[in-house]
Amino acid sequence: MVVAKKSAYEESRLKRLEENKKRMQELNLNSLAQALHTPKRSPMKVVKPKVPKQPLDLSAVRRSSRVADMPAPSYKEVPMEPMGRRAGPRSYKRRYLSNRVYASDEDRAYATQRAEDLQSGLDEEIPSFVKPMLQSHVTGGFWLGLPQRFCKRHLPNRDVIMNLVDENDEVSEAKYLVLKSGLSGGWRGFALSHELVDGDALVFQLTDPTTFKVYIIRVNEQEDSSN
Q: Which pLDDT score, from 0 to 100, does residue 201 have?
């Protein structure tokens, strides 16, 4: 009895296998399954040879007919002279700040006193003032501040070029800045050409609205006269 049931089951199983096999053949499932299990080879990559890049000629790009006949532009950088500085070499010797010589208080006071004595002998109708020199006036910054009361009373109320006439009647120019009450551009040249040093005392006499007669009292003049 058990053997008969087993053979019947086996026949039924074999029958189903045959039916499934026919269906797979009809649907072409065997080929699809084999194709899925078979790895595909990836195609080899074709490496293109590198072509060296040619530099772009910007002069050849002419999109507008209006500029087609014009010469090719040049994009090369051209060094420019900084604004406010002269292109030529300076005619004055550079004074290094490390070589500064400071006048003693006694010598400074003596030079100022001699300048005031000189001023007292000038025409009182012509405005004048005494200005002792400091390091900032004759080295480094080269800025000369003037007495504000004198500037408000006697000097123009705008920026002007002042003429500085020395004792040999040689004329130099310096720019007067009204808002700062002082001399800027040009004063450096006057200070260096006249070899002004710390402790010198100058007498400024306003002979004209834009002209100063300048008298120089040297701080070391006593030493020079004794040698």
A: 95
